[in-house]
Amino acid sequence: MNEIIQEVTNNIIKRSAKSRKIYLNRVSQQKSKGVNRNSIGCSNLAHAIAPMNSYEKETLTKFDAANMAIVTAYNDMLSAHEPYSVYPSLLKRALMDLGSTAQVASGVPAMCDGITQGETGMELSLFSRDNIAMASAIGLSHNVYDGVFYLGVCDKIVPGLVISALTFGHLPTIFVPAGPMPSGISNAQKAKIRQEFAAGKVSKDALFKAEASSYHSSGTCTFYGTANSNQMLLEMMGLQLPNSSFVNTNTPLRDMLTKKAAKVLLQMTQEKISISNIVDEKSFVNAIVGLMATGGSSNHTIHLIAMAKAAGIILTWDDFGAISKVTPLLCKMYPNGSADVNAFRDAGGMSVVISELIKAGLVHNDVQTIVGKGLDNYIVEPTIQKNMIYFQKGPEVSRNEDVISSIEKPFYSEGGLKLLSGNLGRCVIKTSALKKGNMYFKQKAMVFESQEELQNAFKKGELEKDFIAVVRFQGPKSNGMPELHKLMPPLGLLQDRGYKVAILTDGRMSGASGKVASAIHLTPEASDGGLISKVKEGDLIEMDIENGVLNLLVDEEKLQKRKIPNLTFEDNQHGVGRELFSTIRANVGSAEEGATIFDLVGKERS
C-alpha cells in the first residue's frame, strides 16, 4: 500500500472517530428495529399496498418476500434521466420473477446544468443536492422497504442520493445507471465552434447546429464532466455494478444490467449487507484516488465532503491535496483530452483503471462492495452470452493508450486536481487540461462582481491583455455558487490569441471546464469577509499552481484600510423560485465544508 494513501486513510479514521461512532450506533439501532411492514397497523399496511396488483399484494402480505424502494430522478427533459422511464417496470418484473416486489417510493428533482449554465436557474443547482437528499428521505420514511434502488446520474443528483442512502444506512442499496448517449460530433469541434461564436465568426444557427449534434439523444452527455465522474465514483466505492457505468443507454446489455441490479439487491437483502457495511473511510479514499487518476470533476471537492459527512466521515481538502500528489493521471477525456466516455469504455474503462490502481497500491482492495469483498471484483467486463449476462475477466491493460495510460507511463505524474493556499485563502484548481505554460501566473487583477460583467467587458474589447479575472461574490452564501462555465469560451479565445489569462473565484466551474487555469471554490468566500472581497483592479496576484501557492501581493497595511463592497444580492433572492431557498442561503456552509446545510451526525446524547 502506498505510504501516503495509508497515512491519509489513517488520518481520516482518527479525525472521524467520534462522529463515525455516533453514525454507526444510529445505524445499528435502526437495524435492530427492522422494517415496519410486519408490525404496522392493518390500515397502514393496506395504504402501502393499495396500488399493487393481486399477485404483488399476495406476495407482500406473506411477509417472507422483500419489498424494494425505487427512488428515481426520472424526467424526460434531462437526457441522462429520460431512459429511467422504463426502469421501474424492468426492476419490478425482475423482482416478481424472484418472488419479491418493488415500489416507486419517491421521485426527486433533477435539473440539467447544461440548460441553466449562465442562466438564473443555475443559482439553484448546488442547493438542489441537499433538496434531493430530503425528497428521497420523505419517500423512504414510510419504512416499508427492505432495500433501495437509486436511479440517478447527473451532477448534484448522485451526491444528493448518496447523502440520502447513507442517512438510511441500515438498508441494502444499489445505484442503477442509465448509460451515455452515442458519440456525436467531437468535443474538440464543439469547443472550437463555441469559441468562434464568442469571436463573432459564426452565427447562432451554426452554434446551435453544433450543440444539437453533440447533445443529440437520450443518455448521459459523453464528455467527462460531473455526471460521468459520478459514475466513476460509484464504481470506485463499490455501489454500482462493475464496469457497467458507460454501457450505452437503450441497448440489450443496458437492460440486462438493470435486471441484474435487481438480483444483486435481493441477494444483499438476504445476506443483510447494507450500505453502511460497504461505505467507510477506505471507500472515500478510493473515490478520491479515482477522481485524481481519471481527471474528474472539480465539483467533487465539494460533493465528496458533503457525502462523507452523511456517514460520519470527515474529509478535508488537505486529503485531496495529499492524494493528488501521489496519484498519477491515467486518463485523457474531454476536457483534458479529445476522447469521450465511449472511447474510455472501449479502451477498457474502469476495469483497466482499477487494475492499474490496485497494482500500484494506490487504492484499498480490502473493501466490501455490492458484489463481494474486494475492489478487484471490478476488474471485469459485462457481456451477453446465450441471452444471459456474465461478468467475464476484464482488460487489465489499456486497449487505447491515448485514452487510458498506465502507472508506468502516466499522462502526468500527479492527479488532475490541486489545492492552492495563501493569504487569499484556500481553493482548488483542475490541472488535468492545463498546458505547461499555464501553471504559473503573476498578473494584474481585473475585478468583476458577476459573470455578466466579464462577458460584457469581453464584448467591448476590454480584455485584450494578460490578466487574472477575479469573479467574486459567487459563493454559496452570495448567490448559491452557480457554475461559471459560460466564461470559458471568451477566456479560452483570449488564451488562444496568446494572452496569459486565468480566473480566481469563490464560485464553481463546470466539470467540463479545464483549459483555462481556474482557481475556484475559494474560501473564505467574499460574503464571509474573505480577502477576495478587498481585491482592487490592478492588484498583483501570484498563482503558482505547481507549488500550490495563491497570494495577493498587496501590503497588509493597505489591505487593512480597504472596505468590503456593500452588496445586497437583492436581485439574487427572487425569480425562478429563488425565494424558496432563502433559508438555505442563510445557513449553508463553506465550499471547503461541503457547502451543505446538514449537520447529519451532530452531538451524541449524554
UniProtKB/TrEMBL annotation:
Keywords: 4Fe-4S, Carbohydrate metabolism, Gluconate utilization, Iron, Iron-sulfur, Lyase, Metal-binding. One of its GO terms (biological process) is D-gluconate metabolic process. One of its GO terms (cellular component) is cytosol. It is an enzyme of class 4 (lyase). Its EC number is 4.2.1.12. The keyword Iron applies. It catalyses: 6-phospho-D-gluconate = 2-dehydro-3-deoxy-6-phospho-D-gluconate + H2O. [4Fe-4S] cluster binds at C154, C221. Residues 67-376 form the Dihydroxy-acid/6-phosphogluconate dehydratase N-terminal domain. One of its GO terms (molecular function) is phosphogluconate dehydratase activity. InterPro entries: 6-phosphgluc_deHydtase, Dihydro-acid_dehy_C, DiOHA_6PGluconate_deHydtase_CS, ILV_EDD_C, ILV_EDD_N, IlvD/EDD_N. The keyword Chaperone does not apply. It holds the Pfam family ILV_EDD_C. Signal peptide: none annotated. Residues 402-595 form the Dihydroxy-acid/6-phosphogluconate dehydratase C-terminal domain. Binds 1 [4Fe-4S] cluster. Its cofactor is [4Fe-4S] cluster. Pathway: Carbohydrate metabolism; Entner-Doudoroff pathway. Belongs to the IlvD/Edd family. Catalyzes the dehydration of 6-phospho-D-gluconate to 2-dehydro-3-deoxy-6-phospho-D-gluconate. This is Phosphogluconate dehydratase. It comes from Malaciobacter pacificus. The gene is edd.
